[in-house]
């Protein structure tokens, strides 16, 4: 645990470094209506129209689109911080574990699961890029399972899981593109931000990055991991401020999962990837100004927190699909809240 004083110090350092960049980004984006707003208003109309059949959706959208409601931006900011408060139902022989938001939270903040239709309306016309290691791949799988019909999602799996390769999928009817970029090391992510995306004709609308497990296994050095994270944050901020066309992408950081050391499947993993080193790696994520709460570019998708509650891993490191389904819905609801804040 980091002391409160150290946290304040880190925060101050981050603010000094990144607030000017953040303001520049905000200034750019202010003049453009966010791409979600159009889609959401359409979906609001559709949702209201279909309300007897879609009980959750109108609630989500109305709750998040009440510009006149008192202190809506401060309450949406606090809702953002409550997104990870999911509860797990116990597994039984007949049912797998399932996640949910406590009903009170869901109703105060308007959190909701999205149906395929809602998700494709929310993401209409957008480009989602997820880059990282096998966790990132599992998040893409959750996305495909929601966006595509079950047969198409099943057909996509062998290609998605081809070892160490990139993957592209599209939902042409909605103009949605999904890219998975195999980037197990931090240097791969920095390069993606500094070179590949810098040269691309447009930036992704949603960018999810995450890595660390390979570094933990192969380098086993938390402070070097921290240096690499700082380089990623610099590259992400530079990409943001260099974009000719606002708004800048929504950026998420996919956190490290909880590791169940005795279940890890090789001697090297069991020797190197213990709780002590995991905590040291997590601390670097907290201290290197990469997260929005410290003035950095990324909103954390806290896989560690979610996976500690689930107890649903076959190998101590990768978790059942239900975890990445929760991660994806946290991301969607964060996008709705953020779109609301930016309009
Ligand atoms: C989806 O986006 C396309 C452009 O990519 C636009 O023509 C269409 O009207 C949008 N549909 C909805 C439902 O927002
Ligand atoms: C990722 O980075 C490592 C270390 O810098 C490098 O050896 C590897 O080729 C890179 N992989 C990809 C897919 O870019
Ligand atoms: C945890 O792993 C590190 C290397 O990653 C090792 O130096 C340390 O001794 C291990 N600690 C325990 C308690 O096993």
UniProtKB/TrEMBL annotation:
Q: Where are the transmembrane segments?
A: 6-26, 33-54
Q: Which GO terms describe its cellular component?
A: Golgi apparatus; membrane
MF (Gene Ontology): acetyltransferase activity
Q: What is its main location?
A: membrane
According to its UniProt record, where is this protein located? Membrane
The name under which this protein is listed is Pmr5/Cas1p GDSL/SGNH-like acyl-esterase family protein
* Entry keywords, A to Z: Membrane, Transmembrane, Transmembrane helix
Might you name a Gene Ontology BP term for this protein?
xylan biosynthetic process
